[in-house]
Every structure is written in C-alpha cells, then in structure tokens.
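Late entry, evening session. Most of the bench is empty. Finally got around to the prediction I had been postponing all week. Sequence below, unchanged from the version circulated by S.P.
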Amino acid sequence: MLTIDAQVHAYERNHSGRPWVGTLAGVDPTDPSVADTIADWAGTAGTVGIRVFLRDNASTDPADPAINRVLALAAQHSIPVNLACTGRLDQAGGLAARNPNTQLVIDHLGLPQPQLPPAPAEPFAALPQLLALAVHDNIAVKVSGACTLSHEPLPYRDIWDPLGRVFDAFGLDRCMWGTDWTRAVNLLSYEQGVEAFRVTDRLSDSEKAALMGETLSRIYNWSPVKS
C-alpha cells in the first residue's frame, strides 16, 4: 500500500544559517510582494502547495481582501492552499465559498492538538464546525496528528468514532492521513502513528489506501514516482 505522510516537519537542524525554532513560515497575505512569492513557489520543483496561517494577527474576516487574493492567486497557479485554522473553521468555510476554484486543505482536522501529554479533555469538541465544512467540495482535510488526541494507548480506540464521522462527511477522497511529526514526538512514536491506521478494522483495505496515499497524490498532484 502506497503510504505518504501528509504532514511532517523534515527540517534541517536549527542553526543560525537556517533558524526555525519558534517560527512557523507560511504565505503572508499582507506582504505587498505576495503575488511574486506565490509565483516563485509555484515555479519551484517539488512545491505541491502553499500554507496560510489563520492565527495571531491574521484577519478574522472571511471577506478579507488580502487573504482572498492569496487564494485566488493559488487557483491561478493550480496549487492547493493548506489552512492552519484551528479556532477559525467558520472563517475557512467563508473563504471556501468565496474561492470555489481553490483547493483548500484543513490542517490537523482544524482541532487543537497538544505538544505534550495529556490529550485535551474534550479533544473533538470543535468537530461539528469541521463537519459543517463538508458542503464545500473544494475543502479536503488532513487527518494529521489524530493519535495525539487519544486518551488511550495504541490502537487509540477512542479516536475512531469521531474520525468515522469525518470520513463519512467528507469521503475518503477528501481525507489524508498524516502524523504531524515531529510535533507529535512527545506523545507517540512514528511507528505508532503509522500502525494505528494500518491495523484498524474500521477501514477496508481500499479505504486505507485512499486515506494513506492515494488522496494526497491526487489533491497535491504529487507522487514519489513523479518526484
């Protein structure tokens, strides 16, 4: 089975020439040269998408012209936009409605996920807001870091009912498995993040294949063979 992790942090070690600790790099909609930045990324071999962080000082308005311009530009270049939108799923829906030709991908189920144990008391409290986004055909979901939301050991039985609702709402053709490694390093091993999905009896073999690689290849127009 083709297995491709939709979310890993494959960084070089942090050093003065390539610092990254405490810094999350995404496309800045307020940057006057953002059109050039997107064009440069689109023309760079290996680029499969861009990322926008709806957090901190980013506008909360779904009609914000700067954010919508980024999404429109991404559509022009035929590249998906990953949205880090925890706590702002309603805004993501508004953006999807305004940009039906832009492929959007919700990072990490759009749910708060811990850096350290324990998992949140109600890890799927915001799940209804995520499920409401399924009406937008241009939204896909990274089912990344899901194991970090479990209060149980492998095979993390308490996450499968909520995840089943995600699969039912969006379909496996809009869901992509990922570990969110190395953010998850203090909660489980990489092997556990993979095996939990490989061994579950909640998905058929064909559903596992879609979730763990096939959907990603189609949405990002990427495969190991192509690279």
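Two things to note before I forget:
The two ends are 18 Å apart (CA to CA).
The chain has one domain: 34-39+49-219.
Will write this up properly tomorrow.
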